[in-house]
Amino acid sequence: MPRLLTCARQHKQGHRLTPVAFIVCSVFATALNSSVLSAAFRAPGDNNIITGSLPSPAQQEEQLRYAKQGTEGLELAARLSQTGGYIKRPVEWSVFERDPQMANLGKQVYHGKVPIADISLKPGKYRIEAKYGFASLSKDVTILPETRLAVSLNLRVGGIRTLSKVFGVNAISYAKATHKIYQLRDNKPIKLITDKVLQGEVIRLSAGEYKIESRFELGNTLAVAKVTIKPGILTSLNIEHQASMARLQFIKQSQTEAKWTVTSLKNGPNGGWSKSGTSDKPNIILAPGRYKFAAQINGKQFVKTLTLERGKAATILLGK
Question: Model-level pTM?
Answer without folding.
Answer: 0.77
